[in-house]
Amino acid sequence: MLKNMPRLTRLLLRLPKTNNYNIHQPKILVCRHFGQPVALTHPHLLNDGEVTPGITKLEYLTRRVNLVDKAINLYKQVQVSNHIFIIPGAVKSYMTNDIPYPFHQQTDFLYLCGFQEPGSVLILESAKGKANNHTSTLFVPEKNPDKELWDGPRSGKDGALTVTGVDSTHNISDLEKYLYDFSKFNPGFVLWYRFDKPSNVTVHNAICHEFMIEPKYRSLEDPTRLCQQLRSIKSPAEIDLMHKSAEISSEAFIDVMKFSKPGVNESALYAKMDFECRIREAEILAYPPVVAGGNRANIIHYINNDQIINDEELVLMDAGCEYHGYASDITRTWPVSGKFTLAQKQLYNAVLNIQLSCIQLCTVQFSLDQIYHAMLTLIGVQLQHIGLLDSQLKSTQLMKAAKEYCPHHVSHYLGMDVHDTGEISRSINLQPGMIVTVEPGIYINKKNKTVPYEFRGIGIRIEDDVLVTDSKPIVLTDGCPKTVDDIESIMASN
Ligand SMILES: [Mn+2]
């Protein structure tokens, strides 16, 4: 009888009896156990002991130890019972009913534990006499079959313990009780919590309720600066990820350059960049790219990207991907036709010379602000050289004029966030392990009647990502072409 049945029905009937079913069952359970990739389910991404590709549990532990150490050191002379850090992760946010934005984890939280699920909270408590100077507790969304049916698996508290290697894990619903008990048994603690920018309103209300109404802490401190001090110096594993992120973006830029031609829509170049980054395994673009043809390049944050780029126009693209949580940030400017005009080439080479000089200054002898001032002087001199600024201008007048041609800074720190570690001053000397952008530009609006006609409506920026070392700076984005010859030959190779 079985012989006459359709094959699928026969298979279904026999399924419980075959070994195949039993072999596959445990694998299915494993796959559904975690809310993020782990070595067991994604061996192509992670090795044993890694929380994030390339970043081990031990590295995450070291980061937490270093953070708590900083707090203990700051309070060395002051009598306090202990320190508690409350670091909430991001919550899901919605575009419209039931439609979420792509989730992006809060980066301090991610830096300290690598846990990817929305609505989680990390707590660190300093602990005297403990080898690792603290205990770490992660509060995570509870496992919930109904929700998981729609949104995919959650790790739950047991899975989160396996994924991250923190000391203990609880359901997020236990947080308020935990805070209540903590404040009851720990008089005179220091509360490290970012009060002015709550990333999770429910958690914020719980903290207010347990700690703030009748303040039970000795002092309230913002942990952001301490986290950022750690984050500003990249570890070897982070440098590898940043390098990979930079390589992906550089290769994608080459494909976008080859793809561009007169009459192309800016949106097509945006789409091409997105595609070429994702196909190389970047998760997402790190920010909405600027794809600006012609005079639109003079709008620094132009992201409409919906215009046609005409023959003889330059296109300025500022774009970069995010790879396992690490951003790259590149700008290139190229002629959509594949050939620079004489004026474009003159101005482009001026910006390139300035950029190459600024990259050489990315050493421990200088701060980003000093490099910025050097950029302004260099812009002034280059514009005098081309004849766009009066050669008689004295240095302060020259700097002032240069500022009108470049209204932005030359650099920012780069890392998990594009504008990374914003609380680290740009006036401190660079340190080995920092990664910074170098991005001078010259922008000439088409309304500028003080320059010859052929220079009007040109905006040029060249941006690379640079690793500071104890000797020479290393350009992580050096795979992205930037000389006139390299760009023209890449575009001719189509
Ligand atoms: Mn940038």
UniProtKB/TrEMBL annotation:
Protein name: Aminopeptidase P N-terminal domain-containing protein
Keywords, ordered alphabetically: Hydrolase, Manganese, Metal-binding
Cofactor list: Mn(2+)
Family recorded in the similarity comment: Belongs to the peptidase M24B family.
Pfam families on file: AMP_N, Peptidase_M24
BP terms from Gene Ontology: proteolysis
Record-linked SMART domains: AMP_N
